[in-house]
Amino acid sequence: MLFERKYYLDQLLRADGNGMIKVITGIRRCGKSYLLFNLFREKLLARGVSSDHIIQVNLEDRRNKKFRDPDCLLQYIDSQMKDSCKYYIMLDEVQLVKEFEDVLNSYLGIPNAEVYVTGSNAKFLSKDVITEFRGRGWEIRIHPLSFSEYYEVVGGEKAEALELYYKYGGLPAVAQFERVEDRQNYLREIYETVYLKDVLERNNLKNAEGMRELVRILASGMGSGTNVRRIANTFNTVVAMDIAPATIGRYIKCLEDAFFINEALRYDVKGRKYIGTETKYYFEDMGIRNAVLDFRQLEPTHAMENVIYNELCRNGFSVDVGLVESFKRGTGGRVLRRNLEIDFVVNRHDERLYIQSAYALPTMEKVAQEQASLLQVDDGFRKIIVAGDRYSSGYNENGILMVSLYDFLLGRADIWK
């Protein structure tokens, strides 16, 4: 199966000639290397770039170990640049090079050098590190396959395809397997030997079992509000393991740095401020999340919410969890106050969306329940309910846009109109 990754390929092509170092980040095995070394290379060749003007070094390859020395790598690249025509320098997993920032900065002043690098860990390739490139670092964040990318190749009945996507996620290699056992074994294996091992080794963490249990707790509570103190209590009462909240916070940061999980902060919509008491965590890939729990805890409502969150992030939007106060007069005239949650507060520049994820809306009572929090917001921004049991999109009588999940995931609903 060939996934074209058009969305990211277009970003790479648009960045050509911008005078910056193109830094391609993302979770391991999401297709960064294939995108750069195959798809982008083929596009350059089709545009007339000579193959000897494309310099590629895979730094994970043991045969290229010598190039992990910065001076050796510089010498090799310089030896390949033999004229004044443009050269495309592509370095895979550049964080394996000592002092890689100095290596990349060395090419900022060379007009015929276009530099593209990949990295799998935000500790090495975060926006803070990119500032080391003298303000000329251009980050392109790659995610696992979106449902649209997945379905474009896999095809078939949409509901069946989405169920498989919920279960096995969007890592490109997983879609190549036909047997359920092969998919599950692959996901279990790379979780233990690639993702978990990578986080432990890169951060010199000694408590492997504590990290493993933390990931299980986060996977089990995916999309639910929590905090480090509550997680510490779970360790004490359920796991019978004593880990301090500060340590848990550090472990979570390590998982975020590895692009394994993503944090959604809680935002007080009316008060216009962030609330630090709780946060939510979503997994970068549903297949890895399910492998953590050995494919035993598969709730379609939570899977749908995680997939929607990932789709919003993939499109470069800033995503928070919203809280809004509601006041209702109860018996005896007493005013009751409660906080209602908005699944996603989505920001792009000066625009905003309020989005609810609803797996099914079988009754008007359920519709009323899902839109209750949205109706408490009166700032004029668009309000949307993404529904898993709808097959068409349109506004309801309250001015809320009801969007089919398939329209949303397949890019058929322009939510920013």
UniProtKB/TrEMBL annotation:
Keywords: ATP-binding, Nucleotide-binding
Presence of the UniProt keyword Nucleotide-binding in the record: yes
Stretches assigned to the DUF4143 domain: 197-354
InterPro entries in the cross-refs: AAA_14, DUF4143, P-loop_NTPase
Gene Ontology terms for molecular function: ATP binding
Protein's UniProt keywords contain Nucleotide-binding: yes
Top-rank taxon: Bacteria
Annotated AAA domain residues: 20-150
Lineage summary: Bacteria, Pseudomonadati, Bacteroidota, Bacteroidia, Bacteroidales
Database matches in Pfam families: AAA_14, DUF4143
Record-given protein name: ATP-binding protein
